[in-house]
Amino acid sequence: ESAERNAMKLDELDTPALILDRSIMASNLQAMTERINSRGIKLRPHMKTAKCFQVAELALDGNFGGITVSTLKEAGYFHSCGLRDILYAVCISPQKLEHVAALRDQGCNLTIITDSAVVARYIAAENKGIKYDVMIEIDCGESRTGIPCDNQKLLDVATILQESFTANLLGVITHAGHSYACRTEDDMAAVAEQERAAAVRAAERIIEAGIPCPTVSTGSTPCVMFARDVTGVTEVRPGVYMFGDLFQAGLGTRAIDEIAISVLATVMAHGRDANQIYIDAGGLALSKDRSTKALDGDCGYGLVCDVATAEPIPGLRVASVHQEHGQVTGDGPVAFDDLPVGSKVRVLPNHVCMTAAAYDAYHVIDSDQGGGGTEVIATWGRCNGW
To answer: Is 302 in a helix, a strand, or coil?
Structure first.
């Protein structure tokens, strides 16, 4: 039989299913790579959303080879796939140092981060015969974890790590998560400058104290997209740019037709009296993140799209979700005859990180190939859990 006959169609997949359009993702990756390369800094893509080696391979094409992760399970997974330069960008707790030591002992160049003198002392007291690569997290305004760049605690932590026989202080790292509260390009550019300035100032203070600080690492897709100055920054760690989602489209970092991820769902019932259609993708399949509620264009729990083209069906959105039910309503009368029970739709997610977390694999399509993007050309596994 021909490859075409053997290829599975979207219509044949069990639902809900996570769909990844490879050609859209590749375009997003290329655009970011070109942007970063033009600025003379390194791109260390954050894999916390994708959690997939095949995606990492494409994201690293032409770059220096380092990635960012959000869990130690991700670090182990990507190292088992052959990647070695990995930054675990969540403050380390002392109980996890043993896991870190095991990964480093296996040849993983795993870097950890901290904002704590207490944890720095734990690292200094370790006696497992290895050295830990460590970065200090800086709070650039998000008020999550991190040390303000002018706080004395910064030099305290740097000194403990520098004087330790078990640590290599590699630099400083920050994340401007408050960029997601911005609504204009100028506002995002202002936060990007706040992020840059805080990280660079922290590095300068460490260097002024006689301690090397070679790496200055910043992150977040909006800041990377809209930063007007990257002086002093050595690397950036965006992640969601690979896939995009409706919130990113609302911010202007991606367009609707640049969203590479969708959820395939089946119409399972009609509620004609209520002008509603019910699909088998609910709160678990789509997530209950309502991030676009904060924007001018509220997309509910996701926009309902044509199964073949992934183009939004005008007026249709998932307005409400139960655990396994998605209630689809329209701005006007729903065209029930166009979406009979048993037919398929695709839903663009509000927040792709949360949506993708429910799935073990991507069903990969390519809208630039034959079949109009309706043929599943590969299945790529994901690393879930902690």
So the answer is: coil
Which residues, at least 6 apart from 86, have a Cβ–Cβ distance to it below 8 Å? 66, 67, 68, 69, 75, 78, 79, 108, 109, 110, 111
φ and ψ of 215, to 5 deg: -110, 130
For the full predicted model, state whether its pTM sits above 0.85.
yes
Mean pLDDT score of the chain, rounded to an integer? 94
What pLDDT shows up at residue 231? 97
Spatial neighbors of 237 by CB under 8 A, at least 6 apart, are 44, 45, 46, 68, 87, 89, 175, 217, 218, 219, 220
Contact 349, 359 (CB under 8 A): no
Nearest residue to 302 (alpha-carbon basis) of 382, 373, 247, 384: 247
Residue with tokens 């990377």: 224
The pair of structure tokens assigned to 141 is: 């305004």
- SS3 of 264, please? strand
CB count, 10 Å around CB of 301? 28
